[in-house]
Amino acid sequence: MVVVEHPQSMEIREIGAFSPEHTFECGQCFRFTPHPKGGYAGVAFGRFLHLWYENDALFLQTTRNDFEQYWRTYLDLDRDYNVIDRILCGDPLLKQAVDFGRGLRVLAQEPWEALCTFILSQCCNIPRIRAMTETLCRLFGTPVSNTDEQQLYAFPEPQTLAECTEADLAPVRAGYRARYVLSAARRVAGGFDLDALRSLTTEQARKQLMELDGVGRKVADCVLLFGLQKLDAFPVDTWMKKASGLWTSGFPTHLFGETAGIAQQYIFYYVRSQKSSGQAQK
Q1: Considering only CA atoms, which of 81, 87, 132, 127 is closest in space to residue 106?
Q2: Which residue among the candidates 218, 242, 275, 282 is catalytic per the annotation?
């Protein structure tokens, strides 16, 4: 990877395929949207980021310090996805999914944000999850400096939400999920250490997450994958259950190894994107 510093941006070359669209539209993150000037923009770690791909290079509107401290890891830039892709393409159908989503990166999100947003995600489509998340941030997050005219907000701290009631969250329109968000906030604010789960095995961390109210296997696995970077986690929702039927003997797990979560994102993004076109084929 080659990093070049410009006065108002960082230019990143030789990282292999990277697609902002595939990365931010694959259902793993709900706070980045298309930017009027191209690319995508959003908030993570209480910071604004605009990034775009141009002339075979990735550009980030950020400082070198923030790039090294936050965005390099967040965007998973040091992982060689070419090696992973070649292995996964050993299965013809999985190759379709990889080719469709090439450039997708699994983001290293903040564990609390991942937990909260995937609690909100239950039985919801992505536009609604985005809307609920942004309302939650606007109501309870702190303002974030950015170069756009629109005011943006950081994801609310668990301590802030722990002091709220279900009535306070009514404008979020989260329904029954509100009580689970509040319960999780109170547990985390009260000492449930999400970062400490990194040192546990995936199974041990999953078990602890599922002790939280409203956290089942699917939400737990999303937190493991997107918030704790346990790439062997393999979230299964309705789309993935449908996807498994594309293979006569189920998912080709023998190819997944320790990067099952990356394979899951390719499959999920591919199948969900093909829903109206009928292009996914056995």
Answers
A1: 81
A2: 218
